Amino acid sequence: MALIILNQILIMSLFMLIGYLLFRAGKITEEGSRSMANVLAWVVLPCNILSGFMTEYSAKRLSEMGISLLLGAFTIFFAAFISAILFRGNGIEQFAATFSNAGFIGIPLIRAAIGEEGVFYLTGLLVTFNILQWVRGFHLLREGSWLGRDENPADGGGKKNFAAALLRNPMVIASVVGFLIFVLRLGTRLPSVISGCVDGLMGLNAPLAMIVLGVYLAQSDIPSLFVSKRLYFVSAARLILIPLLTILIMAPLPVDNHIKMTMIIAGSAPVGANVAVYSQLLDTDYVYACRTVTQSTLLSIVIMPLMMYFASVLIPV
Q1: Could you write out the DSSP letters of every residue in 147-207?
Q2: pTM across the whole model
Q3: Structure letter (DSSP) for residue 223
Q4: 2-314, which class in CATH?
Q5: Three-state DSSP class for 244?
C-alpha cells in the first residue's frame, strides 16, 4: 500500500513540476490555470464521481455506500473539531487543516491503491465535503457571512438562494445523477460512447490537478514556505496529527478495511486548493492561503507514504 501511494505521489509530483515549469516559461498564465481549475471542478471531478457509481447494483453495495457516507462525515467533522481547537480565531488555518485535497489528490491515490471500488466508497465523503466547504468554509473565511448578511458571494443572491446554489454544485449534481444510475441498475448498461467519454475525462484528474498546483507553486515565494512556523503547524495538523488520530480511531471499527483505508487516504491528503479559491473570492489573505496549499502539498510527498505505511500495518488491505 505505502509503495503504491509513494509511486503515485511521485508521478503526481512530476505533473506538478510540469505545471511549475510551464508557468515559469510563460506557456501557462494565471488565467489559464484558473480555466483549467474550472474544467476540473465542473467536468473532470464530476466524471470521477459518475464513474464510481457506474457499477452493478446490489444490496451489499448500497449498504457499503451508507457506511462510507457515515465514516466520511465522521472524518470531516473530526478534522473540523481538531482544527477548531488548534486554530481558534484563524479562519484560513481552520479551513486549511479541516479540508484536505480529497478530490484532486485523493481520487487518483485511492484509485491506484484501492481501485474503482474505493472511488465508489469516496462519493459519500465528497458530497459531505462539498456541502461543509460551502457552509463551514465561507463562515470561517468571512465571519458568519452566509448567516448574517443579505448578500453572500457564494451564491450571488443572499441567504434565500444558498440552498439553490448548493444544488448547482457540480459535485452534488454528479452524486445525485450517479446515485440514480446506480439504484436504477444502469451502471453497467450505459452506451459505450457515454462510459468511454466519462472514463476519458476522469483520466485527466491527476495531470490537470497537479499542473494547476504547480502553477500555484510557481507563483509562491518558495523560501517563505519553509520559514514560517505557523505554516509548519498547519501542515503538521493536516498531514500528521489529524490522519494519525483518524487511523487510530478507525482501526478497531468492525468495517471493511477497504472502506476505512479509502477514508484515511482522502483524509490524509494535503490542504485542499479551495482554501485559496475561497480566500480570493472573499478578499481575505489569498497569499497565505496559497502558502498553506503549496507547503502541505510539497511536504505530503514525503509524509503521506509514511502515514499510509502506518495505516497499512493497522488496517491491512
Answers
A1: HH-S--TTTSS-GGGHHHHHHT-HHHHHHHHHHHHHHTT-TTTS-HHHHHHHHHHHTTHHH
A2: 0.84
A3: G
A4: mainly alpha
A5: helix
C-beta atoms surrounding 29 within 10 Å: 12
What cell does 303 get? 509524509
Hey, where are the domains in the chain?
Answer: 2-314
Q: Contact, 94 vs 140, CB < 8 A?
A: yes
Is 294 exposed, middle or buried, given 0-12, 13-18 or 19+ CB atoms closer than 10 A?
Answer: buried
pLDDT (tens place) for every residue of the chain, 317 residues total: 778 888 888 888 899 899 999 999 999 998 888 888 888 888 988 898 888 888 888 888 889 889 998 999 999 999 999 999 999 889 999 999 999 988 888 888 998 899 888 988 988 788 788 778 777 777 787 653 333 343 444 444 445 555 666 677 787 888 889 889 999 999 888 999 999 999 899 889 889 888 988 888 888 788 878 888 999 999 999 999 999 999 999 999 999 999 999 999 999 999 988 787 777 667 788 778 888 988 998 899 999 999 999 999 999 98
- In the block, which residue shows the cell 438562494? 161
